[in-house]
Amino acid sequence: MASPGGEKGKETDRNREYRLAAGFFVLIFLLMAGYLIYFQAALSEDFINSPYNTRQDSFADRVIRGDIVSSDSQLLAYTHVNEDGSSDRIYPYGNLFAHVVGFESNGKSGLEADANFLLLSSHEYFVTQMKNEFQGRKNQGDAIHTSLDTSLQSAAYYALGENRGAVIAMEPKTGRILAMVSKPDFDPNFMWQNWDYLVKDENDSSLLNRATNGAYPPGSTFKLVTALDYYRRYKSFEGYSYYCEGEVTVGTDSIHCYEYSVHGQEDFYQAFANSCNCAFAMIGTVLGPWSLRETAQDLLFNRNLPIASYRQSQFTLGSRSDTRMIMQTAIGQGDTLVSPMHLALITCAVANKGVLMKPSLIDEVVNASGDSVRAYHPEQAGVLMSQEEADALAGLMEAVVSYGTAVSLGWNGYTAAGKTGSAEYNEEGASHSWFIGYCDTEDPKLVVSVIVEGGGAGSQTAVPIAKQLFDTYYYG
Amino acid sequence: MVNIFVELSKYVILTLMVLYTFHCASMVFSPVRGNKEWHLFMQLLLMFGLDSLSFLVLFLQQKDLWILLYYLAMMALFVLLQLAYRTLYPKASGLLLNNTCMMLSLGFIMLCRLDMASAAKQLIIAAVASGLFLAVPSMIRQMRFLKKLAWLYGGAGVLILMAVLGLAQSSYGAKLSLMGIQPSEAIKITFVFFAASMLWHRPTKARIMITAFLQAVQIGILVLSRDLGSALIFFVTFLIMLYISTRRAGYLALGLGVGSVASVVAYHSFAHVRERVSAFLHPLLVYENEGYQIVQSLFAIGTGGWFGMGLGKGSPQVIPVVKNDFIFSAVCEELGAVFALCLIALCMMFFLIIVNISLQIRNPFYKLVAIGLGTEYAFQVFLTIGGAIKMIPLTGVTLPLISYGGSSLVSTLLVLAIIQGLFIYREDEEEEIERLRRQTEKASLPFGFSWRRKGKRD
Q: What are the distances in angstroms from CA B131 to CA A30, A189, B97, B144, B419?
């Protein structure tokens, strides 16, 4: 400062407010710069990969869309460049990976949409890019190496057969998705030709990925949530006993067990293994709507799943709910709606000591020369329950396979645990068939979630599909 | 071939910008006089390189001869400005002049890339406004009675706004304008001059009340014409000036209270305020409607990454009103986030240069004018950049000197001309002090002051 020495003190004092005001705005500038850095480093990916972002499509003028590859090195999608410079996207497996890999004409879906930016970015070597540039050729986009496994995917696909429904297989310890099937499906090779038909068939909604975005009543699989709430209240399943007469009535509302079976004297494990509606409806009335709601929300009901585009599940119990609704909800009927993916995630948390890993489909991004551009590592999405609670629920699910509704999964050379479900969806009593579970009770390796629409009891339709997946996983 | 050139030139352009920013910082933060001329000369060289390369890139892509002509015209303008300033005002701030040219040229480059017609219009307006930019500093120097014209400034501000409100009522629009002139830009200077002339000398309570009332009327008219961004800028500017002149933090607290109440009222009474808040909170959810603009801006910034797509290689034109409110996003997309950080740094140093003048000048009226104009500048930059990167809700104001818009360009150049005038005024003041010092030394008082001179800031 140019200031006469004698007046210096006074001068600085006179400028105090000026300095404070200036300092405030300098701080604002620094915050602004900081936020821009933060946005680029942490937030930008969400926006770049948004399906609304059409900028990436302009990359296609200079880049050949990259391949999508399975974990067993099979091509799931690639781009074939014709002699006239036009190109076609080819899906060698046709319908098999329709929903999970998706399509990229007539809009985009599945991985083609989520990884659009990665597929249209090229990390070819600089010299190669220069050569391409001089020869007027496009650069090869990066390839996506997925966690999908063709043998598990086809096992799931053919096991589901002509049924409508969905199958998911994933690793509880990493969140890697190994198989994801939704039916009815479509052939992504012929989107142009079939588009009008696909968008019109409202009853089939073939384009919907039921695995991640279907909404179904959970049926008896929800007893896992009720059981967790019970465990949180009483710290143990021991000491519980109930006598099942096949039907139970509270006031004017009555609940009966599946096909009016009578289970007789039961402890908690037996009630769970038998999937006894009467026992769990009574437990629901004891726990009450708020307690159930809290536990359900801890398990991500009414919450965003770790991947925001996956459907949020719905749980509606509250202070206005009557006894009938509480009893229905406790056994998985009522207004609760859930996606197969959400149940798979809950099962993953049980199998992984309460810790939920973020579901993922992409293992690695690789450039045209096969060198890694970016590897994706397992990420923790949250802790849904304590390890003790997870172990307690695992004990219940093992009982289901030992002497309950999924005994057909026993004695196959591996150990399994799970829960069946039959979710009634109309007045005539028709029901969807559910199974969620995992194999290797000591060291959980594979979680499956299966739903067959209108498949009847879980044990009849869904469990055999799960068995085929487990068999394929162990014996190929 | 062109692609490779664009790809490589992107890094060269960034390097030039980083070096330019570095030279600017050296002058702002380490005020050693000896190096000043060298820094200024390097800045000119770097700016010349950056402009030439950018226009070459644009020309190679568009193959439009107008781009070369434009480049020559722009260069001619800058050369004339630099020569004229050095001849007319040897005491003027070279750094402020260089930075003005740099910001202008960045605006010209982006506008040429976005829309040639707008770029041409902007260049013509800049050339005309340069006349003002040259004339005003000497007026400031001569007209020593400026602080006595309080009622002229206040009256002019209110009259301009009333005229716009009255005459433009038939045309429904988000922003009212009279003959293409935006009222908020027109009162930028009178607003600060009014406050400064009322408050510079120990204002009484009554005087403060009158000032606050008249400023509130002006801000109120802006709010009615839905120009909330400008209203906010003026509000904050007045608050800062009031705080500085009264030295009472209580006024700040009072102002913040009034501001909070006003924003709640605005939220509940204006649908467009609610829309902007909702677009700020969850832009992707309301993408189809109010979120479209901000989401497109974020796509641009995100897709550009650290180093940008390269000039002409992005698609910033998808962002609605990119030329005016989102020029910063276009810079981010094509020139990259690192370049944009340099631009933020330049804006900050632009502000600091103004602050330094207000700190060093001795005339209390001009002190207040300088900090007022500086506040307007800094807060406007914050609103537009902060809005574009979604740090705060959008307010729809321009980035001074860079965005397209005649009124904004003219008013900013006028502000900078006043700042140059104040800079020269300060130099005059120092010479006066120096002269007095020599006289005192000659008198050689035995117990006299010892005038010490520290390094001088620019």
A: 34, 65, 14, 22, 15
Chain B neighbors of A41, CB-CB under 8 A: none
The reply to whether B268 touches chain A by the CB within 8 Å rule is no
Any long-range contacts for B114-117 (C-beta under 8 Å, 24+ apart)? B114/B316, B114/B317, B114/B322, B114/B323, B114/B330, B115/B317, B115/B323, B115/B404, B116/B64, B116/B66, B116/B67, B116/B70
Distance CA B334, CA B109 (A): 11
Going from the C-alpha of B37 to that of each of B15, B33, B347, the distances in angstroms are: 21, 8, 21
- Using DSSP, state whether A91 is helix, strand or coil: coil
Q: Do A55 and B305 touch (CB under 8 A)?
A: no
- pLDDT tens for B152-195 read 787 777 787 777 766 665 444 444 555 566 777 888 888 999 88
Structure tokens at A372: 């890694």
Find how far residue A182's CA is from the centre of its chain. Answer: 13
Task: Say if residue B295 is in the same domain as residue B338.
Answer: yes
Q: Residue B456: what pLDDT?
A: 45
Does B247 touch chain A if contact means CB atoms closer than 8 Å?
yes
pLDDT digits 0-9 by tens, B313-360: 888 888 888 988 899 999 999 999 999 999 999 999 999 999 999 988
**pLDDT band at residue B21 using 50, 70 and 90 as cut-offs:** very high
Structure confidence at residue A121 (pLDDT): 85
- Report d(CA B288, CA B281) in Å as an integer: 15
Question: How many domains does chain B contain in total?
Answer: 2
User: What are the phi and psi torsion angles at B181 (to 5°)?
Assistant: -100, 130
CATH of the domain at A360: 3.40.710.10
DSSP class of A142: P
Residue of A nearest to B381 (CA): A29
Q: What is the rounded CA–CA span in Å between residue B418 and residue B193?
A: 11
Percent of chain B whose pLDDT exceeds 90: 44
Do the beta carbons of residue A176 and residue A302 sit within 8 Å? Answer: no
Instruction: Identify whether B61 is part of a domain.
Output: yes
Give the structural domain span for A300: 219-404
Residue B455 forms part of a structural domain: no
Q: Which residue of A has its CA nearest to B342?
A: A33
Cβ contact, residue pair B453, A2, below 8 Å: yes
Tell me the percentage of chain B whose pLDDT exceeds 70. Answer: 91
Question: Do residue A17 and residue B318 have CB atoms under 8 angstroms apart?
Answer: no
Residue B14 has pLDDT above 80, yes or no: yes
Quickly tell me which residue has 């039916």 as its tokens. A183
Three-state DSSP state, B24: helix
- The residue ranges of chain A whose pLDDT is under 70 are 1-12, 201-203
φ/ψ (deg, to 5) at B444: 40, 70
In a domain, A282, yes or no: yes
Q: How many domains does chain A divide into?
A: 1
Q: What is the pLDDT of residue B376?
A: 95
The whole-model pTM stands at: 0.75
A12 in a domain, yes or no?
Answer: no
Is B108 part of a structural domain of the chain? yes
Q: How far apart are CA A324 and CA A315, in angstroms?
A: 15
Same domain, B16 and B139: yes
Domain residue limits at B108: 2-143+270-434
Computed over every residue of chain B, the mean pLDDT equals 86
In a domain, A31, yes or no: no
Residue B303 contacts A where some CB pair is shorter than 8 Å: yes
In this model, does residue B57 exceed pLDDT 70? yes
Cβ atoms within 10 Å, residue A265: 9
Residues of chain A with Cβ-Cβ distance to B451 below 8 Å are 4-5
Cα(first)–Cα(last) distance of chain A, in Å?
81
- Check if B91 contacts A (Cβ < 8 Å): no
Contacts of B300 in chain A (CB under 8 A): 55
The pLDDT of residue A398 is 95
Question: Which of B355, B371, B438 should one mutate to test binding to chain A, selecting the residue with the greatest count of A CBs within 10 A?
Answer: B355
